[in-house]
Design a protein that fits this description.
The complex is a heterodimer of chains A (about 700) and B (about 120). Chain A is an alpha+beta fold and about 700 residues long. Helix content of chain A is about 45%, strand content about 20%. In chain A, helix 3 packs parallel to helix 5 (about 125-135) and helix 15 (about 400-420) packs antiparallel against helix 20 (about 515-525). The longest helix of chain A has about 30 residues, at about 10-40. Chain B is globular. The chains are: A alpha+beta (about 700), B alpha/beta (about 120). The interface of A and B includes residues 1, 15, 20, 61 and 210 of A.
Chain lengths: ~700, ~120
């Protein structure tokens, strides 16, 4: 099949490859949507029809692209669909599950072939399809492959053999020698195959008549299925002057069709855990996206809009050019400057529009991520014997493509935990007066320049005392600390690494499979995760994410002579203070602000900055959830939109910088990483806490984390 | 040598790309792509083509309907039409030919075969 692409240049092949995989993954997503729609409304003929269309397109594409394993499987899925359509009953759960498994398998094959790995094998899933279509299946020729001159059969050929056997056809191995007088062997091969095609089906031929290259051989070996007998074939295939000898052997009785041996395949395909592999593969793809040149589907109208704006930019440039020329010619400076200002504001508008336009192009509705969850919830809850309904709100909310690619993993972690540990089993729910069916709600919406994604459940909530107990057992906290810890702070213990990983299955431990991983994933997206829980009522995770990763609205300020910026979304308030407003509590600087004690973090010391230090200063109050910390700064310069540039590793080493940006006047500004600073502040708080405790109670030991 | 204008009507981007790359081998070829029957009619109304390659299975307006509409237009009475069909779709092929298609190719498309058929009908 590869020789089908020999005429393509590398670039062309890459382009074709890109188009193929992009489209294939789109089809996979559409298929999942349609299958779930069918699940909700089994009588929906349209859903079935579109599924069929998608599978058909994917089959054609894959076969043409040379990915025959996908083509073969699609072919069988078409059979499965026909059997569902032709059946008296509507699509039931069994058929939906099977369809979803097929899509999973296809996705795996695609991912495998795209990354040059083995995508796995389709025998297991094809056996399941066969079992479904005809409950007493004819054994698939699996296991050892039949060899024709050392060439193993492709899956498609095996399928043809299987189809032929099922249809009661005979399978023959035919060897045809050509007449010595026959000059054009290539034509002879074509003639023979045409003749044979009228009598049955050629499964395999050496040389390959499908290939465009003509092989000048004296002999042709074919695997052939037909309802005719050996004698009939011998008689009809003979062409005077072309063929000399035709040797026909019965193939099936002599070939080792192995029924057993690969039972594992069936199990593999039928695994109820397939949702997991789907999820993981999904991340695999998302992960690759960072390195690879990803493609983005953009509305043609958006591109047109950009084109118009580019045109306006050119007008702006010629306006400036004209002013420059006029100045050269000696026009009045005042005149020129007025027009320069006009040109500038014209350009400014255009540039802003271009920026907005490009950002819009990068925005993708979050439904791309949400769409995989109904299936996951369905499978997981039935596996756990729970009744769970998934409610989705705000799936049209748009997020930056870069975030979309990474948000799926943490969300599915949270949802899995909700089903595993949050939602009670039906009996328990009934006994506590709840509806038997638990609800997990997935919400996305905009809030003050951020995207909020919430996952809430009406399960049993997080057992805070249990959490504290475990934190003490693991040495994260002393018993005294645990007692002092407010509920709001204690709940955040679930994000501690190591605390949530093991023993999560016990009833009391509540939730927490790798919540620390979820947290760091969210933080890597410059986001913040919060959790709220009411015992017996449920739990809510709130993810606050930036609209985009590339541009932020930031507050500019300096400390000493150094210029910094911080994302405005992290700042809850700015206050003007005098040095004497600061007090020391437990050896730490704190600020009494609106009747609350707020810990202060000294960036001046962290970054070793000299100079400045006025008596009158500003404090930025950073807020995450209920928690507040203060950052002392010297001067404030207002807010500005900044394009984030990544920092060199050397500069980024402190871990407190999110990046840098260049201002209009050419100055470089460092952008602080608000969540990292927050974390640092909290660690400091704890460290001081511990030092004190150790001096008071020398018996308890803690390791610095 | 003058330009040879092809219209490729196919809903799958992969197939369109594959066919377009194959047709690029033909000197002077220029390929216009359409994603369905309606799109194809729009493009047909604006320009004259030397050959149409049409997929049968398409959304909005399928290939068979398109062939009958193309042939109903006197100016396109003789333009060669090659249908792209899937294996097994015997009925569709027969219908396409009876509606006025000149020839058909079967997916998976083999480049050599495509070029052979195309050059054969271009000469006519």
């Amino acid at each position: 099949m590869i020789n089908n692409f020999e005429h393509l240049s590398n670039e062309e092949f890459e382009e074709l490859r890109r188009v193929f995989y992009t489209q294939a993954y789109e089809i996979i997503e559409d298929l999942q949507d349609e299958i779930l729609r069918l699940d909700n409304t089994p009588e929906d003929e349209n859903a079935l029809k579109s599924i069929k269309r998608y599978v058909h397109t994917l089959k054609g594409d894959s076969n043409s692209f040379g990915l025959t394993s996908v083509g073969t499987l699609c072919h069988r899925v078409e059979d499965l669909l026909s059997s569902i359509m032709g059946g008296t009953d509507h699509a039931d759960h069994k058929s939906i599950d099977l369809l979803l498994s097929c899509v999973d398998t296809i996705n795996g094959l695609l991912l495998g072939s795209e990354s040059g790995k083995d995508g796995g094998d389709i025998k297991g899933i094809i056996e399941r399809i066969d079992l479904f279509i005809s409950p007493s299946p004819i054994p698939l020729p699996s296991g050892e492959r039949i060899e024709v001159r050392g060439a193993p059969f492709t899956e498609y050929q095996q399928l043809q053999i299987q189809d032929a056997l099922k249809g009661g056809l005979n399978i023959y191995e035919i060897e045809i020698s050509f007449h010595p007088m026959c000059g054009e062997k290539g034509i002879a091969q074509l003639m023979v195959s045409q003749r044979l095609n009228g009598m049955g089906q050629i499964i395999y031929s050496i040389p390959d008549i499908e290939s465009s290259e003509i092989d000048e051989t004296e002999k042709m070996t074919l695997l052939f299925s037909s309802k005719l007998t050996q004698e009939e074939i011998k008689r009809d295939a003979f062409i005077t002057g072309i063929t000399s000898e035709i040797d026909i052997k019965d193939n099936p009785p002599t070939s080792p069709f192995n029924k057993g041996g690969e039972e594992g395949d069936l199990e593999k395909g039928a695994s109820p855990r397939s949702y997991q592999s789907w999820g993981e593969r999904g991340f695999e793809r998302a992960g690759q996206g960072v390195i690879k040149n990803e493609t983005l589907r953009v509305d043609a109208s958006k591109v047109d809009e950009m084109m118009n704006l580019a045109g306006e930019l050119i007008i702006g440039r010629s306006m400036v050019e004209q002013v420059a020329k006029d100045l050269e010619d000696g026009v009045l400076i005042q005149d020129a400057s007025t027009r320069l200002f006009a040109a500038n504001s014209y350009m400014e508008r255009t540039v802003t529009d271009i920026q907005k336009g490009i950002m819009k192009m990068r925005m993708v509705p979050i439904s791309h991520v949400f769409r995989r969850f109904p299936k996951m919830v369905r499978e997981l809850s039935s596996e756990k014997g729970k009744l769970v309904r998934l409610e989705i709100h705000g799936k049209e909310t748009e997020l930056d493509k870069g975030i979309i690619d990474f948000i799926g993993e943490p969300l599915s972690h949270i949802i899995r935990n909700s089903i595993d540990h949050g939602i009670e089993n039906p009996a328990r729910r009934r006994s506590t007066g709840k509806n038997e069916e638990g609800v997990i709600a997935l919400k996305a919406y905009h809030e003050s320049g951020q995207i909020i994604v919430e996952v809430s459940d009406d399960g049993k909530g997080i057992d805070i005392d249990g959490l504290k107990k475990k934190a003490v057992e693991r040495g994260f906290l002393s018993e005294g600390d645990a007692r002092r810890l407010s509920e709001g702070d204690a709940i955040n213990l679930i994000f501690l690494s190591g605390l949530s990983i093991s023993e999560t299955v016990t009833e009391t431990s509540g939730r927490g499979i790798g919540m620390d991983a979820v947290k760091s994933a969210v933080e890597s997206m410059k986001g913040i995760i919060e959790v709220e829980s009411i015992p017996g009522k449920g739990t809510r995770f709130i993810l606050r994410l930036p609209l985009t990763l590339a541009i932020i609205k930031a507050l500019l300020f300096d400390i000493g002579e150094r210029l910094y910026a911080i994302p405005i979304s992290a700042v809850s308030e700015v206050a003007r203070i005098m040095s004497e407003d600061l007090t020391t509590v437990d050896g730490k600087d704190v600020l009494l602000f609106r009747d609350k004690i707020i810990s202060i973090i000294h960036l001046r010391e962290l970054f070793r900055i000299d100079g400045g230090r006025n008596r009158k200063r500003f404090v930025l109050i950073l807020g995450i959830g209920e928690k507040r910390i203060g950052v002392l700064i010297d001067r404030l310069f207002g807010q500005q939109e900044l394009v984030i540039k990544a920092l060199d590793e050397d500069y980024g080493r402190s871990g407190l910088m999110a990046g840098a940006s260049i201002l209009g006047d050419g100055r470089v500004v460092l952008i602080l990483d608000a969540p990292a600073i927050f974390k640092k502040a909290i660690e400091d708080e704890k460290a001081k806490f511990k030092v004190q405790n150790e001096t008071l109670m020398p018996s308890t030991r803690h390791k610095e984390t | 040598m003058s330009e040879i204008n092809f219209l490729v009507v196919e809903d799958s981007p992969t197939m369109r790309q594959l066919i377009a790359f194959a047709l690029k081998r033909i000197q002077g070829s220029k390929v216009i792509e359409a994603t369905d029957g309606v799109d194809a009619l729009k493009k047909l109304s604006g320009q004259k083509f030397d050959m149409l390659l049409i997929d049968i299975n398409m959304p909005i307006m399928d290939g068979l309907k398109l062939v009958s509409l193309v042939r109903a237009d006197p100016s396109n009475k003789d333009v060669p039409i090659i249908m792209i069909t899937t294996e097994g779709a015997e009925e569709d092929r027969k219908r396409a030919l009876s509606l006025g298609a000149s020839a058909y190719l079967t997916k998976p498309i083999q480049t050599q075969e495509l070029l052979k058929v195309v050059s054969q009908y271009l000469k006519q």
